[in-house]
Amino acid sequence: MKNSKPLRFGANGLPDVAMKGVIPTGTTVHGEVDFCGGLWVDGNVRGDLRGKEGETPVIVVNQQAFVKGHLLADHVVVYGTVSGNIEARETLFLGPTAKVKGGHVRYGELTISEGATLTGHLVCNKVAEVQVEQDEAAPRRVTKVRSTG
Q1: Maximum alpha-carbon separation in the chain
Q2: Contacts of residue 139, Cβ cutoff 8 Å, sequence gap at least 6
Q3: What is the DSSP-derived secondary structure letter of residue 9?
Q4: pLDDT (tens digit, 0 to 9) for every residue of the chain, 149 residues total?
Q5: b/e per residue, 26-43, with b = 16+ CB within 10 A?
Q6: CB 3.0–4.6 Å: which of 48, 65, 90, 118 could bond 74 by disulfide?
Q7: Can you give the pTM of this predicted structure?
């Protein structure tokens, strides 16, 4: 897993990233969408959304949006409804109105806001690093566990 640029949020609670693509309200997309950069979803998608690796792809599923399919990007932000698998190579952010149903959810870092609902199988992409404090007279004990990229 490659480390991409960190995702920053603006004062409005939305990601501070240039959106190169928009699926507007009232639009329904059937099929797969491959994209670079940011993809903003206000409408409905019945198919997969795949961000190009190396381009720091971001998917934002806005509050009124509905996606039935697989989401794949470095960063995934959900305020709407997603029914299917999510793979956020770096960060997954679920806003207070997010509804994620079924499937496998893979992430590097996960933030779940109060009010969000998540049903599915969670898998963290990052390997936990365990630091051990060692004393010759005492058994080993774990003092700190943290995720690393």
Answers
A1: 68
A2: none
A3: B
A4: 455 566 676 666 666 677 888 999 999 999 999 999 899 999 999 999 999 988 789 999 999 999 999 999 999 999 999 999 999 999 999 999 999 997 899 999 999 999 999 999 999 987 655 455 555 555 554 444 455 54
A5: eeebeeebebeebbbbbb
A6: 90
A7: 0.78
Cβ contact 113:97 at 8 Å: no
N- to C-terminal Cα separation, the chain = 8
Decide: 42 and 62 in contact? Cβ < 8 Å: yes
Annotated domain spans of the chain? 19-148
Tokens 């305020």, located at residue: 79
Residue corresponding to tokens 């409408």: 43
C-alpha distance from residue 135 to each of 132, 139, 140 (Å): 10, 7, 7
Rounded alpha-carbon distances, angstroms, from residue 93 to 29, 31, 32, 74, 139: 23, 24, 22, 11, 39
Quick one: tokens of 128?
A: 């936990």
